[in-house]
Amino acid sequence: MPETAKAAPRRTGPANLKAMAAQEIRRRVFSGQLRAGAKIDQEALADELGISKLPIREALITLDHEGVVEHIARRGAFVAQLTRDDIRDHYRVFGLVSGLAAERAAKNLSPASLQALEDLADRMEQEPDRAELERLNFEFHRRINHASGSRRLVSILAILVKTVSHGFYEAHPDWPDKAADDHRRILRALSSRSGARARTLVEKHFADGSERAVALLERQGFWAN
């Protein structure tokens, strides 16, 4: 089912407001709520989020640079005509860098850090709330990324994570079970210090997510004429 609109909480600071608005627009695009070619009503969105139009405009400029939004002179901002491969690339690039981080992490993770990842995986398998699952999933991957010991990779991933839509667990009802299986396989590879295996599994994890994202948009008629 399509995600329903969610009013985001008020935040202080122009940078936070811009980031909040950009993330909400991404969520609506990648959940199929906003379809290709749809005009983005800046005034209505500002009212829904309880903010001024300035951070909305700034967010749309950011999204234009990402290729998610297209500005048309004297007409406004529209959802870009994204292709299926655009969606796949969106997730797979993130997966490639995350996979490299996992390969490095396999050599660096301490027994205590591995146990912390196991504990997170346990909590995710028992957590019914999709929003909390999203948070735990972020923490699971964040710990692996930081264990890479590469400031450059962590820096790149910090940029990439801003361009990946949140709400994946809510938009894809079958994803929690699939993700749980993937996480256990990744953990086994990390525990056995198999960097190449961990890298392959993480890349596939994100690639599989990209196919689910494409399938969801297909069901929502994202590419319908």
Automatic annotation (TrEMBL):
It comes from the Bacteria. Residues 15-82 form the HTH gntR-type domain. It comes from Amycolatopsis albidoflavus. InterPro entries: GntR_C, TF_FadR/GntR_C, Tscrpt_reg_HTH_GntR, WH-like_DNA-bd_sf, WH_DNA-bd_sf. CDD domains: WHTH_GntR. This is GntR family transcriptional regulator. Keywords: DNA-binding, Transcription, Transcription regulation. Pfam families: FCD (PF07729), GntR (PF00392).
